[in-house]
Amino acid sequence: MEEIWIIGVGRFGRLAYERLSERRKKTRFVLVDPSVENLSRCHGHRLSKEAANGVTYLSRHLKAPESPNWIIPALPIHLAAEWALHIMGPECIRRRTIPSEIDPLLPNPMRGRTGDIYVSHATFKCPDDCAEPRDICTVTGKKRKQNMFEILREMVLGPFQSLVIRSHQLGPGIGGYRPAQLRSLLEVMKRSPGPFLVSTACRCHGVISGIEKI
């Protein structure tokens, strides 16, 4: 049976579960959130709830061959980057400030409190059920010049190596990635000197974290 892990069960995680559980009748879902109250809002027969920190849960349970088919990050941190930092440990890697020289290379960059940079083709609030068409924006009807995951993958900034996990559309407004994508990211980081720009991005939006080896 297909299995999907939804990490974070706030508004967007709950929407992801409700929409996908309606569409995928043979899929088992694992919902992970430290808030029991958030978890209590979700109901179903093919459902397992884990009251846990999302990064910690992923670090402990993402083991082949028992891995899920898809992971949906739905929490207010960059899950892929935080997972890599947790797995490799503070004795090996740490966050690195991303220099301001990156800003002109990015569409509508905005820095978060941890130094991550959020990017978007949109200058407006996107609908939460966007189908992410291949070529056009559903709001403006205009053609998208380039996919965000391609922009970030091709970006050149000093000594940084750009590593991008592409988020795939699983349903309206719902993006996720395969566990193998996380494992590939980790292997590259282990064998490369860095520093790294670790990104997760779909066609329109993305988040970038700076990481360096110690």
Concise summary:
The chain has 214 residues and is α/β, with parallel strands linked by helices. The protein is 26% helix and 27% strand. The N and C termini lie far apart (41 Å).
Structural commentary:
With 214 residues, this protein is of the alpha/beta class. The chain has two domains: 1-76, NAD(P)-binding Rossmann-like Domain (Rossmann fold), CATH 3.40.50.720; 91-214, no CATH class. Helices cover 26% and strands 27% of the residues. The chain contains six helices and twelve strands. The chain has helices at residues 11-23, 36-40, 54-61, 79-88, 148-154, 179-191; strands spanning 2-7, 27-32, 47-50, 70-73, 93-95, 110-111, 117-120, 161-166, 168-171, 174-176, 196-201, 205-213. The strands form three sheets. Strands 5, 6, 7, 8, 11 and 12 form a six-stranded mixed beta sheet that branches. The longest helix is centred in the first third of the chain and has 13 residues, at 11-23. It is globular and about 50 Å long. The chain starts with a strand and ends with a strand.
